[in-house]
Amino acid sequence: MSAVVALGLGLITPVSSHATPALLNEITGSKQVVLVTAKSWDSTTGTVQVFEKNERSWTSTQGSVKAILGYGGLVPGEKRKQGTGATPTGTYAFTSAFGIKSDPGTKLTYTKVDNNDAWTYNPRVPSTYNVFQTANKTWSNYGGYVERLSTYRKQYNYVAVLDFNLPTGKITTGADGINRTDQSANTSRGGGIFLHVSNGTKTAGCIAIPQKTMKAILEWLDPKKNPVIVIQVKN
Questions:
Q1: Residue ranges per domain, the chain?
Q2: What is the value of pTM for the model shown?
Q3: CATH class in words for 13-17+31-233
Q4: Contacts of 18 (CB under 8 A, 6+ apart)
Q5: Measured between alpha carbons, how far is residue 142 from residues 126, 130, 166, 215 in Å?
Q6: Could you read off the pLDDT of 64-73 as tens digits, one per residue?
Q7: Cβ atoms 188, 82 nearer than 8 A
Q8: What is the pLDDT of residues 127-137, one digit of tens each?
């Protein structure tokens, strides 16, 4: 990578050592980091910065942009509870992407969602908890524990899925078209934690940013560089 490269996020310029967030020097397994920083645990907004590591140092791919966080503030990821509207702090991989709009050219596995696509997190059905679904089903028996993805017009134009409380088991599709896992996620911690487009309102635990930035991040993310998102409260 050259010293100055246009990525749609702005110019990539080297970050001086005194300006580099100290925690980046602690990250050894990733060369791409989306850093989300909030001022306090009660914050419902924060900032997002994007960094990439070359052979010698980290570089910033853009200036800070505003992020809208959960209506419940922030909470350590391991302590998050479903229904609290809190954004979990911690470090999480990007596992896949989806959106109402067409694939912007991301290297992540991308699904253009339609009326059949949903995200389910009914604690009474552990096998489908925090699982992406693409089935011709109303999900009416799931009540409020399901998101029909295509109905979230602006927010879900572009979405990156975070590895927060995802099931660790094998997911298979049954004869009824429903995806199920043989080892469920923790049904008390909640699911559907994404990086997505902001519509100006507080989220239920996700991180929401301007669409232009969200699209550019998807174009930039490269699974070969083990990208992660780091969500923190500034001390």
A1: 13-17+31-233
A2: 0.90
A3: mainly beta
A4: none
A5: 12, 13, 18, 31
A6: 999 999 999 9
A7: yes
A8: 999 999 999 99
